[in-house]
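Subject line: Sequence and fold of a protein, written as structure tokens
Area: Proteins and the way their chains fold up in space.
Start of record: The labelled sequence and token lines come straight after this line.
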Amino acid sequence: DHFSWEGAGRTFTFYEEPSNTSSTGTKTWPSGKVLCKYLEKHRNKMGLDKKRVLELGAGCGLTGIVLSTMGAQVTITDQETTLYLIEKNVSVNDVPRNKITIKEFNFGDDASLLVPPFDVVIGSGKMDHGT
């Protein structure tokens, strides 16, 4: 499955697997879409083009990918079982690889392994779990 997303002055394509019940990260949650719209609306005020952003539990990578095209330096994280979707979505959306890093990170892992220091930490899907 895939869907189109309008934002940051362009159209994105995102692949997801909503029928895959082995992980909550294989689909895009409504809160991620809301967060993207909020960050896009406030990107100049927040200076996002100069920020180092860490996204925890990125799922399909929507928010991190959109932020990277706005100029942010983004590290996208999720469990190993969803990284293939993030990689696919980064590739299909022609995200410059110097603007985005993809790392495995599970809640409870040693956060000091996530370098460099970050200006902004985001994680939207955590609010949707179980809905």
Summary: The longest strand covers residues 2-7. Strands lie at 2-7, 10-15, 52-55, 73-78, 100-104, 120-122. The longest helix spans residues 30-41.
